Amino acid sequence: MMNLEKRKIGITSFGLHVFAMTFMLLDHLWATMMTGQEWMTNVGRLAFPIFAFMIVEGYFRTRNIKKYMGRLLAFAFISEIPFNLMTGGRWLNLYHQNVLWTFLIAIVCMLGIDKVKISNRNIAVKTVLVILITFLGWAIGMVTFVDYYGFGVL
């Protein structure tokens, strides 16, 4: 009798990326070229939670968090001018930043929370610090006008 291995059923991270990029493309097409296609925005809004999930997975799976954050920072800078041109029609827009800045703030908050978790402080102090870090991340997201604002950081 043949030894059949159980096949895993599911979606790979590559598959998730493809879905998220497709959803994002639809959203951006609506915003720039095909106005009036509201369904494209609704589908496009699915991209953010998928990308956010992938960022968190990357945070937990990376071997070098500094390199991970460095790449994210580099692409945040690289994509800022095209993002500004698409959303505001000019190369500098101080009132709306791309989503990579949102993810970067979230990762910094996650790092801070992880450092608090492994500290030798008592549980009450840890709880207060985690709440403060979370609030600070939200506030930074709101003040810097990142995509999805402070709520995207959360």
Automatic annotation (TrEMBL):
InterPro entries reported in the protein's UniProt record: TraX
Protein name, as recorded: Conjugal transfer protein TraX
Biological source species: Candidatus Allofournierella merdipullorum
Keywords recorded for this protein, A-Z: Membrane, Transmembrane, Transmembrane helix
Membrane-crossing residue ranges in chain numbering: 12-31, 43-60, 72-92, 98-116, 128-151
Presence of keyword Calcium: no
Pfam families: TraX
Iron listed as a keyword: no
